[in-house]
Amino acid sequence: MTGENKALPLLTEQQILEAPESDYMNDAQLAFFKARLIELHDTTRERIREVKEHMQDQPDLADFNDRASWEEQWALSMRIVEREQKLLPKIIQSLERIRLGEYGYCMESGEPIGIPRLLARPTTEFCADVKNLKEVGEHLYKH
Q1: Buried b / exposed e across 7-22, counting CB within 10 Å, b at 16+?
Q2: For the residues 115-124, what does the mean pLDDT come to?
């Protein structure tokens, strides 16, 4: 990726979806996904901060049912924080793949991942075919 990307206006999702295949992962598309990943990183960090702040505000609950409800909510909040914290390194890895010129291509097959899949999950590393094979393999080995 070159320094020229900074001057390019960001594309819209619609423009990316309508672009010809020959435009796949050009500078404008990479700039779009870089901006999306940076925004995702910032919002994810903010959500983690907000949930942690909320978790620190333990109310004084004398009623057993209220306390049980609060503890269940706390456990749910912890799961959310854990999930969000696992997302942050994936975002950073995706930004690094943009820097290296590898973003948008399957890490296993080298095939294009595809714009719709990247729009739905910008941190994805595998094309749908490879991901499906991995999931089938995981399912078979679990049983």
Answers
A1: eeeebeeeebeeeeee
A2: 96
Cα distances (Å, whole numbers) of residue 37 to 91, 110, 112, 123: 6, 21, 18, 8
Q: The domain containing residue 43 runs over which residues?
A: 3-105
131 falls within a domain? no
Residue 7 is predicted with a pLDDT of: 57
Average pLDDT (106-134) is 94
Q: Which residue has the tokens 């978790």?
A: 55
> For the chain, how many structural domains are there in total?
1
Residue 92, domain CATH: 1.20.120.910
**111 Cβ neighbours under 8 A, 6+ residues apart:** 105, 127, 129, 130
The gap from C-alpha 141 to its chain's centroid, in whole angstroms, comes to: 26
CB atoms within 10 A of CB 26: 13
